[in-house]
Amino acid sequence: MQATAYTYDAQTRSGSVLLDDGTPLPFDAAAFDAGGLRLLRPGQRVRIEVEGGADSGTETDGRRIVLVTLQTF
């Protein structure tokens, strides 16, 4: 799945992305580290892998990002 980096905190290695429909989805340090990235800038296109589904009734619908890496063509 593709998304756009929205926020990133270098201290905690966590942040959020915007899905193509505009939905924000947070990621934690484990997801950032899994992608092998050193830095992420807002606006960069990223590839994400997500676990979970739509039953929690929250904005993220129970989805959790487990990997963030740069989108390459």
Q: Calculate the mean pLDDT score and round it.
A: 90
Shape: globular
State the helical fraction: under 10%
Total number of beta strands = 5
Q: Could you give a short account of the major beta sheet?
A: 5 strands, antiparallel
The separation of the N and C termini measures: 13 Å
How many whole angstroms does the radius of gyration measure?
Answer: 11 Å
Write the layout of secondary structure elements.
Layout: E1 2-9, E2 14-19, E3 24-27, H1 29-34, E4 45-51, E5 64-70
Antiparallel strand pairs: 1-2, 1-4, 2-3, 4-5
Task: Please provide a written account of the structure.
This protein is mainly beta. It is 8% helix and 44% strand. The chain is built from one helix and five strands, in the order βββαββ. The protein has one helix at residues 29-34; strands spanning 2-9, 14-19, 24-27, 45-51, 64-70. It has a five-stranded antiparallel beta sheet. A hairpin with a 4-residue loop joins β2 (14-19) and β3 (24-27). The model has no long low-confidence stretch (mean pLDDT 90).
